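agent> fetching stored inputs for the 6-O-phosphono-beta-D-glucopyranose docking request
agent> found them:
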Amino acid sequence: MLDYIEVNNSSASIKIALQGAHIFHYARNGEKPILWLSEVSNFEKGKAIRGGVPICWPSFGMNNPSLPQHGFARTAEFKHLGTQEIDSNTTVVTLKLTHSKESLKLWPYKFELLFKVSISDKLTMELTTKNLDEKTFKITQALHTYFDISHISDVRVRGLDKKPYLDALTNKQLVQSGDVLFEEEVDRVYQEVKEQILLVDKNRTIHIENEGSSSVVIWNPWIEKGKRMSAMRDDAYNDFVCIESANAYEDFKMLKPGEAHTLKAVIY
Ligand code: BG6
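agent> prediction call returned; pasting tokens
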């Protein structure tokens, strides 16, 4: 088991592993969890937890081929800076990662990465990257949220109609028509997204609002890729969909020395 922080307040409960500042549980009191977590995920040091909200940073996917897929933050040990009780309904947890000898070998920049999580009847995540180096650096990133759903055939993602997207499976640039449905593997980077997105399930609708971002990744591995994925059951693709609040593809960020950028996601 990895070390983690647990918060229970009048609105909700959360569990955040220090490795990766990885939220692996969030539920509003009396409701089923909003986040999906693989029951066979092993919580091992150096391996990303399958489910919850992995932080993909400083590179999303294989955008920087000299880094591991989705960067190194999701397996790095964050420091817990503090837990602040705002009132009985709202708690704020802050975690930080800074450059280290190991990170500088992988990615030669000095940085500070702050992750502020506000736990109430909404889950608010703010990921702030600050450039502490003398050189400008480029980041792509994502809050790679796995949502718990009733069944993949019962959900649709609303709010992306007419948005352009990169289909990562074919490398084609296409345009969305209507809601996103899941009838096959889906791996897409939607662009120019400024509006709220809805995950419409049989018995509930989840709202996702992003700031500091204009790209959203929608992913479900479906049957074949689902079997090849580590740390999940072969048929687990039925139980989750990833809607990732991102700065991916053309929505990368260049940060000059001293500059900072915040990627924010609010989920309720
Ligand atoms: C998604 C990517 O964001 O993450 C997929 O678009 C990838 O291509 C998925 O398979 C999971 O990645 P990983 O590294 O956690 O297995």
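agent> quick read of the result: The domain at 4-267 is CATH 2.70.98.10 (Beta-galactosidase; Chain A, domain 5).
agent> awaiting further instructions
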